[in-house]
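User: Earlier you gave me the apo prediction for this protein. Now I'd like the version with fe (ii) ion bound, so I can compare the two side by side. Same sequence as before, with the ligand SMILES added.
Assistant: Got it. Here's the input I'm using:
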Amino acid sequence: MNQAKPLKQKGIETIFPMKGDIPLSSFDLHTRVASELICDEARAWKPRGSDNVGIPKQMVPLEKYDVAAPFLSVPKLDEDGKKITFSEKATHWALQSLPFSDENKTWPSSTEAVKQIEIQYGDVLPKPNVRWEDTTSDHAMSLLTFQGLGAHRLERIEDDPDAAYRVDLSWMIAFPVREGFERYGACVFFDHNRQLVRIYTAYNDKTHYPSDNTWEAAKWCWRCSLFAGVTVADHLGSVHYLTANLLVTATREQLPTEHPFRRLLTPFIYGTVDVNRDAHMLLSREQGLVHRTFAFTYNGVVRCLLKGVESVRLQTFPETLAAAGTDSLGEQFPYAMDGLALYEVLEKYVRDYLAIYFPDDSAVEDPSIRHWWSALIKQAPNLGLTPLQTAEQLVRVTTHFMFTVTGLHGQVGDVIAYTRDPAFVGAKIKEGDTIGDVQSTVQLINLTVTTGLVQPAMIGDYRHTLPDKDKDQALLVFETYQQALKQLARDIDKRNLTREQPFQTFNPRTLNSSVSI
Ligand SMILES: [Fe+2]
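And here is the structure of the complex with fe (ii) ion:
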């Protein structure tokens, strides 16, 4: 005989139903409401292009929200965005006030999970640039490291008899997690042939080998640590809250609206204030999406986030690779090969553009550029930025910012290829598990849906943002830059024909012009 469902349970399922057969707990009101709100936003989204990038309007001190006082604050109002309404603020507050619970319903299989996710979210989830057919084998771990989510953390090691490379996330052991979960933190080791040889898991201080019966769980522990560390420390902390925030704040507060340097930077700061403010409102607060999606206590969230913020040094992409010993591995390491090519395109654009308006070293004497530079040092003293003395310093720092908000942001933020399959990456670790639970999967999908909202692309017509002064020369340099991006896209397409799996992270055709998502 069917038993009548409790009234409360019936109500929630009716108001926030799941289309498919996702066995999400009936009482998990927060995950259901968040899913509904995020999917509604994605369905109503009007794709944005380069014409949405307006010309600068004002140079004023910006009002800010404290993210982690006194270290971190984000401006409130985007130049191209809209003021956040009272009702939106109330919705955010209401969402965060919903009960906080960790559920433990499990999927019957990863195949069933992928199928149900497609039914429920297929129309709003972005299409991945790379399809991972195999997500759990040792070989998939190697691809994930050399041309996937772990690539920017790859290091060469010299003093290990069995291993030549590692991605070390064992530092994450420091961050507390909620009861019922294991702490993050693991390190993977690969030999000269990119074969996975061993894994260290920090929570139990053990080293695992391929023949061990703990091997699959150790791989899962590292993949979860990777996803959590990259998302919270690298994506949210380093790229959004530190680098992109620094760039947009100094640019809007220090550079006059017609200034050629501000115009150069305009496409690279589009939407940054909006997205960082939303991240502050929805993601990084206590009981926000990050706190609920990952296993961290709130103290753990803040410490992981600040680790990302504090660890940023002004080290360019080529310098970072050289320091890690991974700059000359050729096709062994597509991440470096394609990334260096993108960096070169940006560097040439910056150098050619600045030469129009500031021949020789005259940029160094420009009062607005000097104010901009001083603001960087004042806002982020840990970067290690020295006083401005040469135009080459300005080229280096500007290229670094542009690369970070385009290419590196794609590397750490474009995660849909990973989150569609709960056996690939997860957000919480339970001892012995090798797949995410239902709640965790839906929470990850909620985080991922917003990354599919179409934003201004790197390859695009931004001629309207160039200054009126010396416009013909600026147009020529801009056109050369756009042609170089298109050529790089063709080069990467060609390289991908012979790669065992395509690598699209630095393909300019897949990149946005700023961190607007
Ligand atoms: Fe992002």
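For your comparison, keep in mind: The longest strand covers residues 196-201.
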